[in-house]
Amino acid sequence: YENLKKGTTTYSNAINHVQNANDIAVSLGKQHFVGSVSIIHGESQTGTTEAEYEGYLAEWASDYKTDIVAITGQPAPPNVLISQTNTGEAGTQPAIPVAQLNAHLTGTVTLVCPKYQFRYFDVYHLYAEGYVKLGELEAKAERYLLSSGAWSPLMPLSFELIAANKIRIGFNNQP
């Protein structure tokens, strides 16, 4: 996070891209609108507590929303989409994925999906097909957010012990 937050070259470059796109749209007599910001992060965030990481996500989301609205003048800030970590350096589990879920449940960011279902190239990166599927899920989440204002990834809602060797898990099953 220290190398990606507001005040870093990476953050400035992202905001400069928004400014450049807005300048082009305005020069063409168009309005520029940023629907979402996609963040894939957390696998290398070692030694960070849940509370610290939730704070990072809140700061990051707020900074992006504020800076983008200041550039575009859009009436609503962009949604900040994250995907939940599944792998990473020793010391990231389980604090980071739990913090990502908590940030979603409090409305700080929108959790699109976990990433356990994708194949990994190493402890940080998915294979290309995983990023394609992640992009498809982000597009689906963004469509729901823009049309209804809500998105929730598939997640368990209830657990019931049926027998000594059987558990029934109820899922939300609805975006």
Descriptive overview:
With 175 residues, the chain is of the alpha/beta class. The protein contains four helices and five strands. Strands 1-2-3 form a three-stranded parallel beta sheet, with helices on both faces. A two-stranded antiparallel sheet has the order 4-5. Helix 2 (50-72) links the parallel strand 1 and strand 2 (79-84). The longest helix is centred in the middle third of the chain and has 23 residues, at 50-72. The mean pLDDT is 93.
Spell out the helices and strands N to C: HEHEHEHEE
Task: Report the helical percentage.
Answer: 40-55%
Main β-sheet: number of strands, strand sense, barrel status? 3 strands, parallel
Structural class: alpha/beta
The total beta strand count reads 5
Task: Note the main attributes of this structure.
single chain; 175 residues; alpha/beta; two-stranded antiparallel sheet; 4 helices; 17% strand; globular
Helix-strand layout with pairing:
Layout: H1 9-27, E1 36-39, H2 50-72, E2 79-84, H3 95-105, E3 110-114, H4 128-148, E4 156-163, E5 166-171
Parallel strand pairs: 1-2, 2-3
Antiparallel strand pairs: 4-5
What's the short version?
The chain has 4 helices and 5 strands, in the order αβαβαβαββ. It is α/β, with parallel strands linked by helices and 175 residues long.
